[in-house]
């Protein structure tokens, strides 16, 4: 087992990515990462909160969510007072103060402070659109784009102008008033 973990870790540092998603072409060095990725397509959310209806595809997301119930935030930024339940979130937050952007796109040079932002950015190069509408054949590279699309089916207008009461399906429409 230890040898396979070492091999998988070494592959992450190389360009070798033998595991590929048959749905969108996503490639990874680890089989476990492919299994986790497939949940995007299947919608499987096996990690469930015992305290509310929240469920997620990743255990780490559930761990973060549980901190909302306890309110415990032991890690604090010495510069601005930001508090968090996770040391990794504080490390990520500190990049706002330092300007560090350690994650870089090999295609175009885009840099970011967050690995998740780089992964989302890479979809601009791969054309991957893993977020699918359950009402039509629309698909999107970002979940927020799919969420905006879904209001076409529901007719919901969740954004309201505080001055005149105008309601809209898209937040950006409020800034155009």
Automatic annotation (TrEMBL):
Pfam families: zf-C2H2 (PF00096), zf-H2C2_2 (PF13465). Keywords: Metal-binding, Nucleus, Repeat, Zinc, Zinc-finger. InterPro entries: Znf_C2H2_sf (IPR036236), Znf_C2H2_type (IPR013087). Residues 19-46, 47-74, 75-102, 103-130, 131-158 form the C2H2-type domain. It comes from the Eukaryota. One of its GO terms (molecular function) is zinc ion binding. SUPFAM superfamilies: beta-beta-alpha zinc fingers. This is Zinc finger protein 436-like. It comes from Branchiostoma floridae.
């Amino acid at each position: 087992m230890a040898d396979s973990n070492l091999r998988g870790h070494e592959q992450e540092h190389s360009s070798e990515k033998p595991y590929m998603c048959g749905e969108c072409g996503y490639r990874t060095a680890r089989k476990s990462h492919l299994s986790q990725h497939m949940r995007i397509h299947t919608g499987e959310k096996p990690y469930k909160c015992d305290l509310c209806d929240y469920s997620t595809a990743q255990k780490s997301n559930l761990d973060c969510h549980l901190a909302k119930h306890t309110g415990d935030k032991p890690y604090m930024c010495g510069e601005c007072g930001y508090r968090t339940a996770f040391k990794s979130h504080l490390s990520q937050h500190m990049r706002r103060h330092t300007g560090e952007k350690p994650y870089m796109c090999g295609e175009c040079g885009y840099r970011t402070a967050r690995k998740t932002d780089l992964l989302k950015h890479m979809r601009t190069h791969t054309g991957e659109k893993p977020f699918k509408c359950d009402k039509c054949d629309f698909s999107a590279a970002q979940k927020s784009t799919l969420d905006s699309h879904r209001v076409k089916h529901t007719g919901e207008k969740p954004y309201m102008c505080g001055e005149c009461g105008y309601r809209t399906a898209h937040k950006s429409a409020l800034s155009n008033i």
